Fold these 3 entries.
Entry 1:
Amino acid sequence: MVCPLNSPSYSKSLEEVHEKVKQIEHDQKLQNISRTEVHQADNMKEEKKIVHHLLYPYSDLFKRWGADLSEEEQTVAQELFLKYGYNVYISDHLPLDRPITDTRSPSCKKRIYPKDLPTISVVLIFMNEALSIILRAITSIINRTPAHLLKEIILVDDYSSNDDLKGPLETQIKNYNAKHPGLLKIVRHEKRQGLTQARISGWEASTADVVAILDAHIEVNMAWAEPILSRIKEDRTVIISPVFDNIRFDDFELLQYSVAADGFDWALWCLYEPLPDEWYALKDETAPVRSPSIMGILAADRKFLGEIGVLDGGMHIYGGENVELGLRAWQCGGKIEVLPCSRIAHLERAHKPYLPDLSIAVKRNALRVAEVWMDDYKYMVYFAWNLPIENSGIDYGDLSSRKELRKKLNCKGFDWYIKNVYPNLRFLPNIVGYGTMKNTLKEDICIDQGPVPGNTPIIYPCHAYSPQVMQTNEQIFTDEVLLTVTFKLDRCVTDPGSGDLPILEQCDIAVSKGLNLHWDFKQGSAVINRNTKRCLEITADNTGTYRLVMQTCTGQRYTFISLCS
Ligand code: UDP
Ligand code: MN
């Protein structure tokens, strides 16, 4: 997993939906324009410029790329795009050793590293990635890693079916090895084992002092390895993440990302955290960033990674393995750091060809993490996925060896972790529900934050996007408190005690003003304000329009419906 700036989310914001609609309208306009241009060109006769008909105006591939392609080329590009989730057409046309922008800060560029650093094995894992993509990754590694430090590049094929990854890839490996004897190795899985096991297989095959385990659709940037190797030389217990830039899936331009710490929410989706104050206090842009977790791509002392249990081989297909490593590293005597001077360009796909719905795998793997590492906090993960703790119905596999590992390594608990490593991870004791909140009287309308700016919650047709995300313990929070961190200003539902409307107030202000923000609520029961004893209910006026009101309880009930499952 490498985190996109807006991490994969099951609750897309309305803005995104509007954005999509605007884009479709825009695409249609473009198509009309290009038709008019063709028409004008016909009339003018001497105008030779060919403007092609856009065959796929709704495809993400052609939003800002491909206007000059013939119809035949568009079809080839579109088919490759659907198969791979990125622009293989452009990849096949770009040089393997293309230059990319050096995105390091000036102070990184000035740093000088010792020559005698530990050696490195670089692992590239893949499952049906495009051949030119893999070759460009290899080329960038060879060109941008000091030859005396690069011991080997290990390709791990997670049972790909594409023909070009068989014979043609073998030929390429031979060619590389003719120039750089013994540099390239390949491990092939006999059946599909998922990305975690692919990373483990790469680690098993590696022999250098340090191992870097990368996706196959990357291009390493200038001097990416030296910061990693010198940091691990200083401290073998640190697990490292480089900083990612995004290779855009359509035009392959490099989009620079800021340096950030790697975090996660309670569903264990990745997210970027602001840099810690202590890091700014150092006034050194090259300093390592202490990070609660890791995104997936990692570098570590090979033996140390083995000592702490590499990765959880019981994980399926995708997701969760990165958080598991983050917790295990911190809880068992290691640490995680992001190194600002080590930069890797990573291609963010438009879609995952191997799994249309990532949440199925992430959910299952998240429960493994919760069960092994999260102690009394594990129910937050169950809540985030809206699963009962007992009999969740999800078979997360055998955990005995991971639990034994935790015992053997004498690891600290999650309570220590959350207090000392990740205090930004919001913890709400005694959560009753999370998701959209529906009145059982009428199930197609939901509690909604109402117009913004404004502070009157309303009842609105259910659409499950973020203005309708609610959660409650003894307070009713709006927005995704469970899934985000402290920098958001949460709002709480309060009963003003008079009038017939509930009011939203920023929670900390509601607390300091002593407003009525505590409620008694259980799944499927009334929502009663603890102080005023009034209920949050709905009324219909004579036009049949519903309003959310505070009134004397009449026995109305609410249920939470999850957004995750
Ligand atoms: N991968 C794999 N086996 C799988 C799924 C993925 O080996 O079953 C590889 C994939 O080719 C890629 C890496 O795992 O090199 C990470 O997957 P992906 O890039 O799709 O995840 P993201 O980086 O977008 O989170
Ligand atoms: Mn990737």
Entry 2:
Amino acid sequence: MSFITRFAPSPTGPLHLGHAYSAILAHDSAARENGTFLLRIDDLDQTRSRPEWETQIFDDLSWLGLSWPQPILRQSDRLPLYASALETLWDQGLLYPCSCSRADIRAAVSAPQEGAPLHGPDGLIYPGTCRPAHPPSGPMPDSPLRLDMARALAHLGRAPAFTETGAGPDGETGLITPSTMTRTVGDVALARPGLGASYHLSVVVDDADQQITHVIRGRDLFSATQIHVLLQGLLGLPTPIYHHHRLIRDETGKRLAKRDDARAIATYRAEGKTPQDIRAMLGL
Ligand code: GLU
């Protein structure tokens, strides 16, 4: 079986130890399997992506000893492909326009049902304010769009399942029941104001186009993976094998964030650390 994996950072800040862990795991797995390690630049959010960060990513990864084939793929070059995937979902009657702001959603969920989870992979779970009783007809509007989760799961007609070689945050494996998804993920946004397609949609289209067979990513993305597997089913795309790895935390147990400059690879480089030091720090 062929093995193609990728590392897909967003050029919105410096790479830190957590990124290095994902990238090295993916790179080493590909090397072990005689496979291919691809680098993709997730620069869909043009308001936050910067060429300087992209250059820094290339620099840091090369310094870590990683290499990848050229040319690399950039999401900002692929917007028409994402629009066409959105059209497919629209034609299936699975999307609806929604212009609720974050504040609207916060106000609507201020009195949640007892025991209902408040947060999904993208923040507050959408309470369904704009969800129509029947799928909207006519051409797809140029507006923010959400996936009608219950309708999408019914349309797929089976539970979205995938092979997991790691584990989710609570030891979950790759079986997702539709009722869990409606409750814990809800109607996610697939097209956002000013940004076009969302991360969830673009990543699924890109992974399929790049024939990715193995996705290696942090456990923080486990619930996002459930959305991706559902979208693959709806769009008729293959589902890769997923490996969700442990998260790299600081001494206090807090997850590293992009703004955590103290743990940026560039900072360690400037301090005179070697790539071997970084691997050792990561337990690799
Ligand atoms: N750009 C995403 C990130 O950096 C990609 C993660 C993924 O799809 O595996 O979190």
Entry 3:
Amino acid sequence: MSQASLSLIVEVKARRQEARDIVTFELADPHGRPLPAFGAGAHIDVRVKDGLVRQYSLCNHPEERDRYQIGVLRDPGSRGGSEAMHDEIQEGDLLQISAPKNHFPLEPAERILLLAGGIGITPLLCMAERLAHTDTDFSLDYCTRSPERTAFRERIDASTFGDRVRFHFDDGEASQKLDLEALLGNPDPEARVYVCGPTGFIEAVMATAKAHGWPADRLHSEYFAGAVTTSDDDDSFEVKLASSGASYTVPADKTVHQVLAENGVEIMVSCEQGVCGTCLTGVLEGEPDHRDLYLEDHEHAANDQFTPCCSRAKSKTLVLDL
Ligand code: FES
């Protein structure tokens, strides 16, 4: 990730154990100046430690300018980002962050259905604040493994929109589980669906919605867990730069981004998991093996761009628009 985009320094004003394995951090300008404004669904890049930049959705009220709040799940499978946040970042620490970016913006609709899985609540909570503020009709279905793993319960209960939120616990009674068929069974042309959480949760919501005829442009999702980026079957392939004609071999155990970086070709990356889209690069020839969760199906099918942080090639060579 380019250091230039990590243009803000913030101080950790507070950290709080929000639920089991979930900590929230409140970040503010060290001198009390207002922070750049953000819209519901926005995230920031956080430099967690040397060489490690991770993205976290902002979960406070989007009208606030004096702080950013993020929630971080301890995830041993996350390659160190969440564990460093949990174990190393303390109140009073200074953090380098980017200005807010928004790949998951709220679009106008008569009615909004928010569906959160686990830590996927963070951008949706920000949306709920915004929708309540603008008096938009909405509901929030919030699924977690158990009450003790449910972040922001007190905040939701104390909010003006607590009556629009339904909690669903994996370890609870069958009667309180989320019934996607009932929720999405009758597509509402005036509504939009926003879903965030683990891959399986999002796929279940999307599959149910599509099966019942919800138009794709009314369904909005943001993934939290990265795609699987390597497999035992991976092979080497060539990448060629259209501008110079230079060609490099990408071995099975390296990404395109790594190989290009080793050869002095800089591509901006952030999540390195195919989630954020920062590294999107044009493809002029060849067929990518898309491993990201960022592009839509029709964008994958076009094969004219790919994410070199994780995606590979089905053809022997990819000619890149670099
Ligand atoms: Fe995030 Fe490649 S760096 S998708």
